[in-house]
Structure formats: structure tokens, C-alpha cells
Design goal:
Chain lengths: 196, 196, 196, 196
């Protein structure tokens, strides 16, 4: 099977997820002062954080499939599983934003990030198991320390959220930064493969 | 006619259907405890079931068009007919979820699944009727026992819903599982065709 | 310029237009009887009619670009102009459905259809004016009697709506049927061109 | 890396942004006269203006990537940064429309346009910095006087909005017209490159 439609469908779903989150930002009616936007600030900040997270997933998804040639039925379902957890991001973002950094919403936000991370790892393994192998991807991912570390950080953040949710949110921001800062090692491996 | 835009448009519509369903999950405002999510549980469960159903349709659509080369005007309309019934899935999912497994919503949910199944069969036949034929698809589909069985199960579930809607929902879950579990016979036929 | 992204962007916008219309169908909460759906019937019928209209536009757009090779900046803007009018279809569909076939909504619905028809004609002309010409499309379209007749019918329906909006809606259904029934002449010309 | 998915994802996000803005136009219920639409007029006008702005960005994005072959990780993030600011357009459009041309919404609308313009410039520079260079694009863009002038106009409009927001809106319309009117110089350069 070709990967074309897998990419197209995932692009569609991720594009919709990243865009409908902004619908949580309800423009206040008959309220035309900057101060009227103040209650929207936590909603905006959580929107920005989730935008970066979905952007990171799209970016990594893009890289992973760039070096993949064939997909199987198991890969299609592993991909839908990832999209399922990511599709819950707008909901948990809304709950977190509208209850400015409360305990339960912070924990649930972390849980959805955790499950998305696990789903991404499952997708990665399914792609590596496709008959014929994928040496480039296997080399680029290596032992996937970043992925494993993220899941551990999410678990810590969930536990901490029942005590101090602000610290949990800082952990989420930290993990996002960890992924945001480009990993020159992966790009090098990918470039090398593309040159061949 | 090429199949490219048929796939792209269907991917777009299916991606939107699968994603806007999550908008039925309204994040409770000023309600930051896990217990506040309890009324959302049936909405979440029906969302998950519908996500799997739309995922199955996308998967099967993907497989079917993978082995199709040409499309006709009749195929385009048969495809739009399928998308029409699937576009009603978010509505019936919302109605089912917000009235936790009541009789009429359960029956209507089954009706939309039934009509989607019928529309899929019509699309399949129109593709098989495209001049030049499609031996690979004809072989892979065979007598389409799974498709016919699904329609019968949906009809039974609709009848049962007026008596015990919980049993109907179990039937919907069962049919979804029946499609979810990969059918090695089809993948083998498709792989064989791809190798040639 | 290549036509690829013009098609992809139009597919995206049309897929969203056709799908978000279903959001007008609000699932009634705490109302689990079939009789609770009765007030939704006009909304559903206008949804179905608009679905067919957007489907027709997608179909014709698909056919038109199938036989087009190059696009210009003017074509891009003519295409956006068409998408602008079509993007208003969900709004007028909602207004028409929620005020079951009242005078003003019926007239406005016709106006948006009329402007979409005009925008489609402008797009067609811009494509025919692309340097190098497009003999296949010019031959297939001919004098575009169907397009011109539609605009006349919409104008009549708008005028009639102030007197009897039900007749106007019948005219809209009639025009849709006129486009829905495949035009063997066009498919023949397109097929002939594809064979060369 | 190939540019295909960057284009597909951007097309998806821009298609959704341009289409969900129309959801701000709420069809009035049980209000079937043309006069009932009067309060929607400013919402409609700001919708039309934002539609043209997003259309301009799509158009320019299309042109820019048309002459680009390779993208880097930095380009992917610069693109997501642009999409982030554009994703806020529906929100500021809604705030501006629902508070017919008040001071703060007019200023914020200008701020989002300003940041989008800055993000577009950053994206342009990242594409020009891709190893191997992009002589066609560099030549077409030149000193990017139009982009720089737009940012200056937005800054003036923001300052003016605290005194007279109507003038600011006229400036936004003027900048849109400046981009709307095709730039024969760029199309010539692009055409020349495509001929080679």
C-alpha cells in the first residue's frame, strides 16, 4: 500500500484539530475593550501550547513518513489510534483553559498527552515492523530516548497536578521545548538517506 | 477520469466528520472536578464508537480505491451518496450520546449505519461496473459476505432497539469489531496485485 | 503554474462547506423521541438540498479542472470568488431551514445560488482565456446553455419567492436535478480528450 | 525534504480558517425578514475582508512554494508560526464584527495582520536560506517593498484605531487592494523560471 492517502488523511485531521481549537476563543459580544479579553487569557495560553504540541506531532509525523515507503493495515490503524488521542486535545485544552489551571483538567491534559505519546510509539514500531524494514528510520530514531523521556515527564506531571498544577504546566511547556529545538542528529540521518 | 481528487475530497470530508464529532464534547465551564465529566461519559463512548466506524469506512475506502484506476460520473455520485450518510454520523452520535442509549436515538443511529452500508455497496458496484473492469477488486470482495452480514445486523439492531437499546449498541460494537479485525484474505489479494 | 494546489485548496474548502452544514442540525438534548426531531425536518431537507448543490459544484469543478493544464493568477482569484459565494451556502441553508421556507430566506438562498452560478461562469471564462487555450473544455462547454438557464431559473425563483416561496424551492430542486442527471455529451468529449 | 506535505497541511489549515469564519454569521432563528439580517451586516463585511486577506495569503503562499524545491525543519516551523497568527483571524474577525468597528477590536485585528505579515517575512527568509538557494524566488521578491510597506501600514492603522477606527479599517482595505491587484513583475519572473 502507498502512504499517500495516509499522509493526506492525517494532514486533514491534524489541520482540523489545530484549527477548531481556536473556536474555544469566543469573541465577547458587546464588549469592545481590551479588558474584556482578560478572562480569555488562560484560554489563549492553553491554545498556544496545544497548537505547538499538535505542530510537533505533525512535524514528527512528517519526518517519520518521509523515510517510509510502504504501509500495512496495522499501520493504518496505529495511525488512527494516534489521531483519536490527538482529537481529544481540543476538548482537554478547552477544559484546562476555561478552568484556569485547575487540578483535574491539568491531569487530564497530561493524560491525553501521555496516551498520544504512547500511540506515537506504537505507530513508530508498526512502521518499523513493515516487511522489508526501514533502516533509515530505525537509525534516525535509535533508542527513542526523547519519546521515552516525554512519557516519563507526562506521568510525573500528572502526579504533580494533584498537588500543584502550575508545576505540571511548566513540565508540559518544557517537554514541548525539548521537541521544538531541532535535533540535528535526525535531520543529518534523514538528509544522508535522501542523498543516496 | 483520475481517482486523485475523488480520494482527496473524500479524505477531506471524512477527516472533518471524524474531527467535528469531538465538538459534541463540550468542556464544562467553572467545573474543574473529574466528577463534572461524568455526564459526558456516554457522549465520549458514542464518540469513540463513531470514530472507529468512520475509521473503518476510511480504511475500506482506501483499500477499495487502491486497486481502482478509473472512475466515472456515476462513481463520483455514488461516493457523494456515501459521504452524505456518513455526514449524518456526528448528528446521530450527538443525539445518542446526549440521551444515553435511549430507544429512538439508538434506532436512528442504526439506520444511518444501515444506509451508509447500503451506500458503500452501491459505490462498490459502480466501481466494479467501470468499463475495463477491476478484477483485483472483484476477487478481493468476492461475494461481500461481510458487507451483507453487516446490513442484516444493523436491521436486527434497529428492530431490537425498541425493546432493549443496550443490546442494539452491543450489536453495533460487534459489527465494528468484525470489520476492525484485519481480513488477511483481502490484504493478500491486494498485495498480490501490487506485486504484479 | 500548476493546478494541483488550486484543486487541493478547493477540495478542502468544499469538503468543509459540505460538512459544517450538518452542524445546523443540533441534536436535541433530553429529548429522545422521534417526535422531537420533527422541528428539525425543514433543516434536514434544506441540508440535503444544499449537500446536492455543493456536490454538483464539486463535480463540475472536478470535470473542468480535469481538462485544464495551466492556471493564472486571474484563475486563482476567480476560483476564490466562487468559493466565497459557496462559503455562504451554510449560512443561507441555516436561515432557510430554521424559518421553514419563509419569503426572505428563500430569496436570499436563491441569490447566493445565483451569485455562485455567475462566479462559476467567470471562473470558466478565465480558464478558457489562459494563454495556450483549452480546446477540450471549450468544446465540452459549448455555449454553456445549462449554466445560463440555471441563472435565469434562479432569478425567476427569487422573484417568485416574495409571492410563493414553496414554488421557488421547487425551482431550486428542479435546477439541481437538471445538473444531477449526467450529461452524456460532456463525458463523451472529456473521454475522447483523455484517450488522445 | 519534499514540500508536498507542507503545502497539503497549509492548504488544509487555510481552507478551514477561511471557512469556519462563516460560522460567526449565526442564522437568526424565528426571524425571517431581511431587516433581521441588519445586525449581521458588520459581521458580514468583516468576514468578506478577512476572506480576502486569507485568500491573499493562500495565493502568495502558493506562489512562494511554486518556485521552492526543498524545505528544512526551520521552514516547517516558520510555516507553523505563520499559520498560528492566521488561525487567530477568525477570532479577531468575530470580535471586530460583533462590536461594529470599535477601537480595541480594530487595533487587535491590525495586530494579528501585522504579526501575520512579520511571520510571512520570516518564512520567506527561511526559504531563501535553504542550502542550494532559490534564485527565482529571490529575484521575484527583490527587496520585498510591498511586504515592508504593509507592515508599516498596519502599524499606522493600529495607532490610528485609538483615535478613529474607521480610518484604520479603510487602511486594511487599502492594503488588501494593494495585494489583490496582480503584480505583473512577479508573474513574469515566475513564468520565465517555469519556462526554463
Amino acid at each position: 500500500m502507498h502512504k499517500g492517502r495516509l499522509e493526506a488523511f492525517s494532514d486533514g485531521v491534524l489541520a482540523i484539530i489545530i484549527t477548531i481549537m481556536v473556536l474555544e476563543l469566543h469573541a465577547p459580544q458587546h464588549a469592545a475593550h481590551f479588558s474584556d479579553l482578560k478572562p480569555l487569557l488562560p484560554v489563549f495560553l492553553t491554545y498556544a501550547m496545544s497548537f505547538v504540541y499538535v505542530g510537533i506531532y505533525w512535524n514528527n509525523h512528517h519526518h517519520m513518513l518521509q523515510v517510509t515507503q510502504h504501509v500495512t493495515g496495522a499501520v493504518l490503524w496505529a495511525n488512527l489510534h494516534l489521531l483519536f488521542w490527538l482529537s481529544l486535545v481540543p476538548f482537554v485544552t478547552g477544559w484546562l483553559g476555561e478552568n484556569a489551571i485547575a487540578k483535574a483538567p491539568t491531569a487530564l491534559y497530561g493524560f491525553v498527552l501521555l496516551m498520544s505519546g504512547v500511540a506515537y510509539t506504537i505507530l513508530l514500531r508498526e512502521i518499523l515492523r513493515v516487511p522489508g524494514g526501514n533502516k533509515t528510520l530505525a537509525e534516525a530514531v535509535g533508542r527513542d530516548m526523547k519519546g521515552k523521556a516525554s512519557v516519563v515527564f507526562y506521568a510525573i506531571a500528572i502526579a504533580v497536578s494533584f498537588w500543584n498544577p502550575s508545576i505540571s504546566c511548566l513540565i508540559y511547556v518544557f517537554v514541548a521545548l525539548m521537541w521544538f529545538i531541532p535535533d540535528p542528529r535526525i535531520e543529518r540521518v534523514v538528509d544522508k538517506a535522501a542523498d543516496q
